[in-house]
Amino acid sequence: MQTLGPFAVALAMLAATAFAQTTDFTSFEAVPGKPIEIGNYAAVGNACAAGAPPTIRVVEPPRSGTLSVRAGERLYRIPGCPPVKMQAEVLTYEARDTATGTDHVVYDIVGANGQVSTKDVTIHLQDPPRAAPAPKPDIKL
C-alpha cells in the first residue's frame, strides 16, 4: 500500500501529446471527521509559465464521506524553473464520523489539451483516537 502525504502534488504538463488516457492507483489513510488533501493539480506551459488549471470530473463519488474540489493558488517548484505561482484544483476528502473500513473514489483530470488522467483512490479509514475514560469520583461515606 502506498501512502502519500497530505500534499500530494501532480502537475498536468501541457504538451502537444496524443490524447491517451492513463489511470493511476493510490491509497490514503484517513480518520473519520478529519479532512485530508488527496491531491492538488495545476498546469504549467512552455517557458515555465502558469497555465489554466485542469478540469476535475468525479467519476465515482465516495460512499462514506465527501469529496470537495475547490480552486486554490499554490507556489510550485518545478525543476529547471523559478518558483511559479499557479491556480490549482485542490481535492479534499472527509469521511463521516461514523464511517469504518475503506472508501473509494475515482476522478478524471482533464488537461487543456484534452489529455485525461484517471485517479483511482482507495481510502483506508482508521479508528478515531479513543478518549481516556473519565476518572471515577472518590466516594466518601
Give a verbal description of the structure:
This protein is about 0% helix and about 50% strand. Strand 7 and strand 8 form a beta hairpin. It is elongated. It has strands at about 10-15, 20-30, 35-45, 55-60, 65-75, 85-95, 100-110, 115-125. The chain has a single domain (about 10-125), classed as Immunoglobulin-like. The chain is built from no helices and 8 strands. The model is unreliable at about 1-20 (pLDDT under 50). By secondary structure, it is an all-beta fold.
How many β-strands, per DSSP? 8
Q: What is the CA-atom radius of gyration, in angstroms?
A: 20 Å
- By helix and strand content, what is the structural category? mainly beta
Please trace the helix and strand order, writing H or E for each element.
EEEEEEEE
Instruction: Give the helix tally.
Output: 0
Report the sheet-strand fraction. over 45%
Principal-axes shape call: elongated
CATH level-3 fold name? Immunoglobulin-like
CATH class: Mainly Beta
Mean pLDDT: 82
Write a short abstract of this structure.
With 141 residues, the protein is an all-beta fold.
Q: What keyword list fits this structure?
A:
mainly beta, 141 residues, Immunoglobulin-like, four-stranded mixed beta sheet
What's the structural blueprint in terms of helices and strands?
Elements (H helix, E strand, L loop, with lengths): L8 E5 L7 E10 L5 E9 L10 E6 L4 E12 L7 E12 L6 E9 L5 E10 L16
Parallel strand pairs: 1-3, 2-8
Antiparallel strand pairs: 3-6, 4-7, 5-6, 7-8
